[in-house]
Amino acid sequence: MSQLTSRRAFLSAKVRGEDLSIIRPPGSVVPGFVDLCTKCGDCAKACPEDVIVIGADGFPVLYSDNGPCTFCGECAQSCPTEALELERLSNWPWRASLSAASCLSMNGVSCRVCQDNCEHNAISFRLQQGGRAEPSLDTDTCTGCGACVALCPVDAVTLERQTKPLTEANT
Ligand code: SF4
Ligand code: SF4
Ligand code: SF4
Fold first, then answer.
1. What is the number of the ligand closest to the CA of 48?
2. Do 150 and 68 touch, CB atoms closer than 8 A?
3. CB 141 within 8 A of CB 122
4. Spatial separation of the C-alpha atoms in residues 98 and 18, rounded to whole Å
5. Hey, what domains does the chain have and what are their CATH numbers?
6. According to the model, what pLDDT value does residue 164 have?
7. Which atom of ligand 1 is nearest to the CA of 71?
8. Ligand 3, atom 3, residue with closest C-alpha
9. How far is the CA of 88 from the centre of ligand 1 (A)?
10. Peptide bond into 93 cis (omega under 30)
11. CB 3.0–4.6 Å: which of 7, 31, 76, 81 could bond 15 by disulfide?
């Protein structure tokens, strides 16, 4: 399934003041995270990939610019409350979203960094006129690991929360 959206098109949905566009660590309870998290920071310390950082509000966030999440579950295991739970790790709702407007390939510059670094082959390119190539993302294959987000040289890839049910292939 092709999914091209505008750059940094975060969802603005808020539930009881909780901003659902913020990417909480894998296994998080959403909504309700801010009620359960004590801001102890144990999840950030436990992450071997250093992809959990403490946000401006004091709560942990997944920061894909630091690299991909391996879904190892160390963060959820370290959490002393029910804010993060291992059982929810497979319900990760975030998937990559590609901005055609920002993508180098769509602007006639040869680049396949995201495709080359996607272990799940979720990204493909369709040749266009004028030496351009349009990126396409298969959300049924994407795991939302964030490797492409971290590596895109022009920040044309973001993670976006999915609202439709995910398939067994990526849960
Ligand atoms: S699942 Fe593992 S790699 Fe991913 S954020 Fe948690 S500790 Fe880090
Ligand atoms: S380990 Fe749990 S309670 Fe502590 S900051 Fe992380 S999510 Fe919040
Ligand atoms: S988030 Fe991971 S699985 Fe999804 S397209 Fe990017 S690199 Fe591939």
1. 1
2. yes
3. yes
4. 25
5. 14-91 (3.30.70.20), 94-170 (3.30.70.20)
6. 67
7. 1
8. 142
9. 13
10. no
11. 31
